[in-house]
Backbone:
């Protein structure tokens, strides 16, 4: 078997892998670099994640805006004739253009792109389509895949990956899950007029988020007539004679069976697992946890010398920008003599494209109280109606919360739910990462009239 040798061999052309490969090429143009990918370049985010999801979210927002337009004096007739086929074609074409851009950029950086599935044959050697490739340094950035429950009839359901392949917008959908993917998908479908039922295993959605954010989102979902069944898990799926799907569930609080009928689609969003099963990691000294996540230290080192891992395959902070940042930091350390360079996994901002959207950075109230003690934490909160809704029939709320550590009132957590939360968070995240205090927020002149100004005016002058 022939063998090609590279200075840097990257397995996975997702966000983290490509970011690391391209940064390495930028830092040292003499490096021989290759990226291996079994699917389309761009990984989950570009193909079946953040990017097409955000396009879907924008479509749902436009639907809302059309509904609101009549309250602003526009004679707009809103019907249910959403042209899904046309929309899907344009959305998919956009993603395909991005795939092409990734390929073009790799070519410009003289990075070899190898199509196929990599399997380790040695500690730093992989085989792809009958050819062996060896890396002096190897990065594993293969991401993850959606989990499917082990229940009878599970094959009748689909995942977030399948969602983007739907050729027809279904009339009735069951969404299973309580995390951000489930919340986003259910919100998009409901807003686009799909009869959506949402199964949540416990008593709340977004349980890892600040409790007040979760509670306020659930209240808004209820106001918008989302059909949510809490404390309920699917037990089985069955196909009926009319081609629709019946879900038999179990309510764990009332200990009773729940039968839900007539679904065109069932969408599982119950978590993700790492793509390590087919890597043949037993040929290396790379260790994983029981779930298959690759174990790394703070510098992205695996237990195998000169083999590294970034992104979802590590099972920590499963976010595209995290993978990108970790990959770039790694390349600076490996190829630019920056031995202490690493990603700080604290204060990572994130947004949920729910209805309404959520932005959060830093610690939740419970996390802050556990870390610093309840008596050392002070909270600032505000709840109001965004000015956009002054003219409309619907009145979604905006909720904001600052979690501050005494005595300086350093802001250790910042949380917001409401219109525009997704766009306002980035700037506030810089402040939190920089160690801003409530007093410094108070000293910042507000931009009026905006929702964001509430963060610098709430309980103004009362900070310590």
Residues:
């Amino acid at each position: 078997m022939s063998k090609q040798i590279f200075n840097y061999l990257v397995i996975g052309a997702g966000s983290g892998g490509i970011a690391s490969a391209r940064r390495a090429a930028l830092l040292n143009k003499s490096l021989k670099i290759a990226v291996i990918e079994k699917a389309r370049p761009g990984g989950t985010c570009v193909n079946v994640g953040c990017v097409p999801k955000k396009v879907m979210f924008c479509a749902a927002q436009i639907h809302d805006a059309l509904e609101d337009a009549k309250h602003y004096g526009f004679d707009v007739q809103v019907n249910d004739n959403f042209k899904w086929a046309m929309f899907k074609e344009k959305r998919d074409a956009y993603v395909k253009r991005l795939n092409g851009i990734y390929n073009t950029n790799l070519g410009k950086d003289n990075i070899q792109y190898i199509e196929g599935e990599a399997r380790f044959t040695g500690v730093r050697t992989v085989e792809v389509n009958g050819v062996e490739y060896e890396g002096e340094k190897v990065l594993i950035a293969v991401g993850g895949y959606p989990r499917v429950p082990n229940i009878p009839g599970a094959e009748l359901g689909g995942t977030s990956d399948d969602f983007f392949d739907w050729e027809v917008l279904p009339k009735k959908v069951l969404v299973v899950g309580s995390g951000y993917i489930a919340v986003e998908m259910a919100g998009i479908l409901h807003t686009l007029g799909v009869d959506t039922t949402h199964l949540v295993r416990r008593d709340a959605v977004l349980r890892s988020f600040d409790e007040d954010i979760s509670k306020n989102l659930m209240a808004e979902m209820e106001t918008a007539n989302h059909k949510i069944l809490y404390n309920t898990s699917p037990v089985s799926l069955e196909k009926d004679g009319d081609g629709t799907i019946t879900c038999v569930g179990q309510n764990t609080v009332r200990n009773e069976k729940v039968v839900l009928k007539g679904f065109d689609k069932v969408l599982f969003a119950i978590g993700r697992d790492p793509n390590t099963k087919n890597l043949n990691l037993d040929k290396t000294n790379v260790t994983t946890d029981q779930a298959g996540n690759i174990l790394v230290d703070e510098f992205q080192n695996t237990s195998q010398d000169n083999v590294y891992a970034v992104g979802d395959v590590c099972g920590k902070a499963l976010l595209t920008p995290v993978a990108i940042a970790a990959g770039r930091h790694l390349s600076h350390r490996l190829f630019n003599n920056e031995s202490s360079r690493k990603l700080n996994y604290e204060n990572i901002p994130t947004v949920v494209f729910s209805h309404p959207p959520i932005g959060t950075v830093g610690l939740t109230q419970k996390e802050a109280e556990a870390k610093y003690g309840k008596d050392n934490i002070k909270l600032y909160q505000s709840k109001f109606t965004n000015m956009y809704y002054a003219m409309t029939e619907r009145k979604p709320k905006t909720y904001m919360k600052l979690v501050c550590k005494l005595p300086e009132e350093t802001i250790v957590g910042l949380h917001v739910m409401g219109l525009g939360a997704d766009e306002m968070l980035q700037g506030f995240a810089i402040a939190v990462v920089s160690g801003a205090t409530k007093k410094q927020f108070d000293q910042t002149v507000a931009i009026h009239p905006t929702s964001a100004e509430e963060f610098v005016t709430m309980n103004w002058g009362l900070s310590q």
